[in-house]
Amino acid sequence: MKLHFQICRDFFFHFVIIITILINVFAPVTYKQTKKIDDFDLGYQVKKEATFGNGTDRLFYFMQVSDTHISKYVSTREKHFSTFCNDFARAFDPSFVIHSGDITDDKANKRGIFMNHPNEEEWETYANTLKQSGFYHQSNWMDIRGNHDASAIIGKYSDNNYYYTYSPWGQYLNSIGRPQVYNSMRHMIFGTYNFIAIDFTTYPQVSAPLGFFGFITKDILDDLEAILVDAEQNHQVNQTILIHHFPFSLLSSQAVKSSKGNSIKDLISKYRIIALLDGHLHSTKAEARILDGKVLDLSLGDMKKHKSFRICAFDEDIFSFIDTDIDHTDPIILITNPKDCRYLSPREPLEKIKYSQNIRALVFSPIGFDSTTIAKATCQIDGNTVSSNMTKISDVPLMYTAPWDPNRYAGETHDIAIHLMDKNGNIITSQSQSFSTTYHPKKIGKGIFEIIQHQNVSTSIIAWMTILYLFYGFGFVILPKILRLVLLKTKSYEKFDHKMNNFCERKAKWWKFPYHQFLSMIWKFGKIPNSIWFIFLWAVLSPLFIPFVLGPMIVHTWGAGFIWGVAIHHSVTFYPMIGFYFILYFLGMIFPALTVVSLPFVDRDLRNFSDFLRNPTAILSACGILAIDGWFIYLLVLGYGAAGLLLSVVFMWNSGILVFLIIYTIKSHSKKKVYEKLVN
Description:
Blueprint: H1 2-25, E1 59-65, H2 75-92, E2 97-99, H3 120-133, E3 141-143, H4 147-150, H5 163-166, H6 168-174, E4 181-188, E5 191-198, E6 214-215, H7 218-234, E7 237-243, E8 251-252, H8 264-270, E9 273-278, E10 287-291, E11 295-299, E12 308-315, E13 318-325, E14 332-337, H9 351-354, E15 358-364, E16 376-381, E17 384-387, E18 391-395, E19 398-403, E20 414-421, E21 427-435, H10 457-489, H11 493-505, H12 513-526, H13 530-545, E22 549-554, E23 557-562, E24 565-568, E25 571-573, H14 576-602, H15 609-613, H16 616-646, H17 649-668, H18 671-679
Parallel strand pairs: 1-2, 2-3, 5-7, 6-8, 7-9, 9-11
Antiparallel strand pairs: 1-12, 4-5, 10-11, 12-13, 14-15, 15-19, 16-17, 16-20, 18-19, 20-21, 22-23, 23-24, 24-25
Helix pairs in contact: 1-14, 1-16, 2-3, 10-12, 10-13, 10-14, 11-12, 13-14, 13-17, 14-16, 14-17, 16-17
């Protein structure tokens, strides 16, 4: 029973540390927009006059799709993309369509999950689908590379960089030097809208799982700043949108600055950027957050599996959007006024909502739906009917309006619902959302991937790598041995050992538990024999100079992944995913092993291996270590083949040594024998 308690106590202490670190590394973003928008500088001089009338003269809309992952091994993905282009995009007739990356899957083989290899056949499928649906032109299609489109490509001008051969925008970029930042100005009668695409991939881009983050460089920031300055000085730009594949939270090197000393956050804060449109996370729905209370960071779900796409609209320069999927056979309703109060931004002329004349909603019907079955549209606010028959003001796009008095809804948030009805009075489809005429934002709900929506995951990983190394590597491996040697040298070890044994066995108050447990574990680890201690010292120090990963990171091109960077093809790039594996390596391998291995040297109840086997907690702990080791090894095999497995000193060899050490130590040494060796 005592043994059971001690093992549980030790592992609970590690569990608390792990949870604390993960919460800090991947802390959910707090919603910074907690006060009314009108307390901010809106940046707009809005005339107090009627807006949102019965016309479409200040309206335009576009669409977004992401992560199609067209694969020659999985035919359904081509079908999904073709359905989107032909049955939805063509039917909705947007101003243009944005593809935010991971156009093709680029897998080396049918069973490959991580190993990438550019497939020209997949790019041909992409181009043919666009041509057949009428979107193979810069004017109505804007795309950008994702990590899959760039994986396993050595350089910018490599022959297998098929984006520049088959993409409509890639062909244009090929003629101007293949820049990583480019823009498209959309000139309307009522204003100009600037869409800036940023390719955050790098050269060479190694295969997954390491290539999960985007990379910011000085050249990218210089080009982005030049485009933003030009738009501000030479064009009357109404709104600006950034398009890239990686969410802002997954961009590494955010401390990099442009030649003028501006970071990516500085540029986003300084210039009138309303939204970042991206993908990459493959979520089932939109993942959204607001950066610094100003800029929307909107991650779209994938077309690959979840069949997601997005419809966006600027109505009176106010940005609205709705996410849906190609399984949606009924009409789609996008309410443009009043705007969903979860996505309010001070960079919009929000006062127009307060002085608006009409509720406005766009309706999009996919091919196969007979729009003549829509007899009328009705509108309700807070359950009360505002209009039982909204006015249809246009057919293309189909828009309904209803007069209203915004002043009646001043104060907190309200709920609006619009229903499309058939001639029998049955509801065909509905759309509802919350709004506020006085700019009270509503907190964005938690999404599946909110756990990684930290403002700078890369920096957090680096910080906690350092903290872990100092706390665990020095505190639990090096410091205990130094302390023991000092005590032996001063001949005060036996006296201090007696006091510490009593201290370790004493039950601590709950508020003293971390302090008590930390000192207890330091003392226990110091008793590990030198022969075993040197193995742990190797496990701690080896990641500094031994590769975590060594193998074909790009087809036919080998690389070595260290915690400080990946060396491949005459270049070294820091990949934050290695840092994440480093954290898991410490928490999941070294120190659970330390806890188990130290037991026979300090616990009087553990006499032999059979005692260990009879303890369920100890068995579960050992199985947990084996499971973590197996998962790391599995990822290596998927990404870098058998070579990546056999040549991984840190994962494969060190893990094997630690697992062997756990079994051998507990089986071969009783507490009595160990103490005899220590005393003698």
